[in-house]
Amino acid sequence: MFVLYFLYQWLIFMPLFIIVTILAAITTMVGCRFGDSDFWGYYPGVVWARVTAAIAMCPCKVEGRENLDPKQSYVFVANHQGAADILLLFGYLGQPFRWMLRKGIKKIPFMGKACDKSGQIWVDESGAKGILHTVRQALNTLKNGKSVVIFPEGTRSSDGHLHRFKKGAFTIAAMLRLPIVPVTIEGPYKVLPKGSVIIHPNKMRLTIHKPIPAVTKEEGNEAGIDRLLHESQKVIAL
Predict the structure, then answer these.
(1) Which terminus of the chain has fewer CB atoms gathered within 10 Å of its CB, N or C?
(2) pTM of the predicted model, to two decimals?
(3) Which residue, 13, 151, 36, is CA-closest to 86?
(4) Residue 44: which of 61, 19, 65, 23 has the closest Cα?
């Protein structure tokens, strides 16, 4: 079975994946150039993610969409199991958002340009000025009524387990008095672990938890940030 899927991956999946990726990227770039960037910066990615999950033979299940208000901006925080996380979040979250992405993605042909044109937020960790610029981008995105998705662990898990959260996402949420939505991702670590190039067909699940109330002025930012962080980590780990 492994040999058959290995052949399928390189002879069928990869060519189809490259074609779908190029088409989605071109559609995004052209749509954002001549049309509504909010629409074209999101929905081609949804189609791309769902088609990719289907041809990878990785069925996806989502729970908890009823917890979201389509008119509300959120800071979504999710555990980071592997590269396939993007398929679950883009394809099945069901609420338009912007990513916070590492600058290295800019180097990926077509995809990097599409992310740039669609207004994704590039994380600059080169120094204090770069981090400040990243935070300002995120704040402007959220002020304009959009949502963002952040992986508070900062990088993909090397063992599939949840690791310590950083404060960045929760600081941004506290500054704008926005609710945090914890999201639990299951399955992508088995599909494509960090450092692997072999895809393993596996079921994936996305659980959207109830929003955690925004920080109030009475609570104070420091106490509120700690509350958001610890509650989110506790909920995601369930």
Answers:
(1) N
(2) 0.93
(3) 151
(4) 23
